[in-house]
Write a structure and sequence with these properties.
Immunoglobulin-like; seven-stranded mixed sheet; Purple Acid Phosphatase, chain A, domain 2; about 475 residues; about 25% helix; single chain; alpha+beta; binds fe (ii) ion
């Protein structure tokens, strides 16, 4: 108990610091000042990925009118002359450094499975041209990347994660960010670092982002906890969710998969946002015309950090996930890695009765691990990224350490009207080291608890039969 009190105190201190941090304009120089040329450029979707693309960027307030230009991509450079002009919506965002303009354009009416060239600017000062390809209109194989919390040291230590992930899956169709992209919701410098880390990758591969508690470490003019204004200014996302949760609770359909973003911070904070998301989730899953469904949300159904739990999420959302056969639930918040679920584990070909739950972490902020009953693969003190491949018959999931070592793998395979779960985790020693910051806090009783948890976890997972691909004969 003493341990939790110490940790709670540390968290509360951090929150108070965060609130205080934004009370005054910064006296520090702006490391990422807005200019006349576009920066923080990011591709997303507001509607159908097969027929649309959205793009958002930032400039100084001297740029009052933004514009995107789009053309069919062509090997010859003369496509530039044929580009269509699309005027942007512009909004002003105030940060600790002053004002900036955020411009956004949602382009509809595109052809499926077609590569376009796009650039943004103001008719005088332009970004580079970049290519993107619209989704196919029907179910077809593709892959995507999923990141847990980035949150801290975004330039220094998260950048390596997004870059290694994209080099591992350069043709990924999109990147999912499962909340806590930054630490202090309204600290512009952190959003500057987040965009620095992703750089032009964000203007190449569309993002699907869901907010976490740290996007809510802010109070609005009514002194109400609120989603940072950086969110809606900086991302152009769907508005097909419940009223009041536009661009944070929404779904996107991509080549046979319905991807649902739930706003768990609003769910936990506000009763009306909990009720509305439950009703909305039932509807979008019941009406899902696609064979697969993936949910991303910040707070996990099962926690992977010691001493944490989200019972109201588990009690209300888990039965809906099971009722509608959600395949994957991709989460964050706990700064550790855990994979498991309500699938009868330990059997090579077990009937999949519910989603596989994953908690992951992409940035360097690390917690101690729960090694709870639900977990069948675990890591702590390890930055990871995940690559998910989808086709008509299977979802293949792979987690990699930031040093590109395959750390976890499984498949959900469709066999008739059943889904089979196949555990393909590689045979390696799991990384469950207690992070140094927790070693400093641990007392003898904490070490005793940890060792007991670890022994129980090892005994449980030793019983699993994992599928290993036969080694290829070397000639
Ligand atoms: Fe969080």
């Amino acid at each position: 108990m003493e341990m939790y009190t110490r940790r709670l105190f540390a968290c509360l201190s951090l929150l108070m610091f965060s609130a205080a941090l934004f009370a005054q304009p910064s006296t520090q120089p702006d490391r990422f000042p807005p200019g006349l040329y576009p920066d923080r450029i990011i591709l997303t979707w507001k509607s159908n990925p097969a027929t649309s693309i959205a793009v958002t960027w930032r400039t100084s307030t001297e740029v009052t009118k933004g514009q995107a230009q789009i053309a069919l991509a062509d090997p010859g450079p003369d496509f530039v002359e044929k580009a269509a002009k699309k005027p942007a919506q512009t909004e002003t965002l105030k940060s600790e450094y002053g004002l900036a303009h955020y411009h956004s354009v949602n382009i509809e009416g595109l052809s499926p499975n077609t590569t376009y060239a796009i650039r943004v600017g103001d008719s005088l000062r332009w970004s580079e041209w970049t290519h993107f390809t619209t989704a196919k209109a029907e179910l077809a194989p593709f892959s995507f990347i999923y990141f847990g919390d980035a949150q801290t040291e975004l330039k220094s230590l998260w950048s390596r994660c997004i870059r290694e992930a994209v080099l591992q899956a350069p043709k990924a169709s999109f990147m999912i960010h499962a909340g806590d992209l930054i630490n202090n919701a309204r600290r512009d410098e952190e959003w500057g670092e987040w965009h620095y880390a992703g750089g032009w990758l964000n203007f190449k591969i569309p993002s699907i982002a869901t907010p976490g508690n740290h996007e809510y470490s802010y109070r609005d003019a009514q002194n109400k906890v609120a989603l940072t204004p950086h969110w809606r200014a900086g991302f152009t996302l769907p508005e097909n969710g419940p009223k009041g949760l536009e661009e944070s609770c929404y779904y996107v359909d991509y080549q046979g998969v319905r991807i649902v973003s739930l706003n768990t911070q609003a769910y936990l904070f506000f009763d009306q946002d909990s009720v509305s998301q439950i009703q909305w989730l039932e509807k979008v899953l019941a009406e899902n015309p696609h064979p697969w469904s993936v949910v991303t949300m910040h707070h996990p159904v099962y926690s992977s950090k010691e001493g944490r739990d989200n019972p109201t999420i588990r009690e209300k959302l888990k039965p809906i996930f099971e009722k509608y056969g959600v395949d994957l639930v991709l989460q964050g918040h706990d700064h550790t890695y855990g994979r498991g679920g309500n699938i009868p584990e330990g059997k090579l070909y077990a009937d999949a009765k519910g989603p596989v739950y994953v908690v992951s972490v992409s940035g360097p902020k690390m917690y101690d691990i729960s090694l709870g009953d639900w977990m069948y693969r675990a890591a702590s003190n390890t930055q990871l990224y995940q690559i998910v491949q989808v086709d008509a018959q299977r979802i293949r999931y792979e987690a990699y350490t930031v040093t590109n070592q395959l750390y976890d793998a499984f498949e959900i395979r469709r066999q008739g009207d059943k889904k089979r779960f196949v555990d393909e985790a590689p045979n390696l020693e799991e990384r469950v080291e207690v992070p140094q910051v927790f070693k400093n806090l641990y007392h003898d009783s904490d070490w005793k608890e940890f060792k007991a948890r670890y022994a129980a976890y090892k005994a449980k997972t030793a019983a699993i039969v994992r599928y290993r691909k036969p080694a290829k004969n070397k000639k």
